[in-house]
Amino acid sequence: MEQKDVPRSCISMEADQEDEFLQTLPRERIWEGTPYLYHFQGFWCPSWAFHGVISFQKHFQARDTDLIIASVPKSGTTWSKALAFAIVNRNRYGFTANPLLTANPHDLVPFLEMDLYLDKNNLPNLEDRSDPRILATHLPYASLPVSIKDSGCRIVYVSRNPFDQLISHWHFLLKRSQEEAGPLVPLEHFFDMYCKGVHSNGPFWDHALGYWNASLENPNKVLFLKYEDMKEDVNLGYLKKLAVFLGFPFSADEERDGVIEQISRLCSFENLKVLQANNTGKMKGGFQKSSLFRKGEVGDWVNYLTPSMAERLKNQVEEKLAGSGLTFKAS
Ligand code: A3P
Prior knowledge:
With about 325 residues, this protein is an alpha/beta fold. It is built from 17 helices and seven strands.
């Protein structure tokens, strides 16, 4: 959906009108007992995040210096947040006392609609945050607040092949349900809903295409990264590219001194997963921090999807992305 099609009138809605408005929207849920997803502005918005979305759209004022990490859930958001934080703050903290060693990446780089703007009674104070503010969103490009698009702020979008993203998402739901004695959604059903585009912030293809097209139109504004490319890039070229895009390029001395490798190690799956800050306790959303770190691999989906499921999803994604130039490596 193009920005011009977004029903902007919703954005001026008062908090007490939101529940009533929500009831007018088409809704689905992945399975009996899971939260409703509401079809809003062309995407499936989790019920609990709706107020945060409206408030973020209504109140957020971007600065030219802001750096926004964007993604569909389970695409490598945690990793990207860690990388951006480590790059931007490398001279401030160094590597032995880096906040990433003691705090979860989502606490250091909070979500706008799913964290900062969630509270119905208070607006966040973002004015006191020092520049550059590193913030995050799962919203599709079309639904971003106008000030993000109109300002000079930059957006890093991390994408992942839909096969692994789907399986990662399913595991995430499953783990949460196991913890809360909730329903265990069968994979076949989750898969079917996914192919219909019904999943948090989906459809996957619309989400990816929104940012993909924006990155083609304005590559200085939107950097489009792929999880698989980052995983296989042993020369860490993606880190250099990211640092340049964020406005914090590595100097020749830093390259020689191994600063890029240090950042890569600090933010690696293996390092982050075992830190106490990431394997004990719960996130604000109520789920275990440890559920953010599962396998961190490319191609794990082959252990779950049958050949016919894989074929169906492949065809569907190819059809949806046809002509866009966007492709994904799935193994
Ligand atoms: P898997 O479930 O396939 O293991 P998000 O951060 O967007 O929620 O995505 C979560 C996925 O990224 C999970 O994938 C998780 O294991 C993986 N992940 C988390 N931290 C990572 C890191 N530092 N490097 C690579 N993958 C990471």
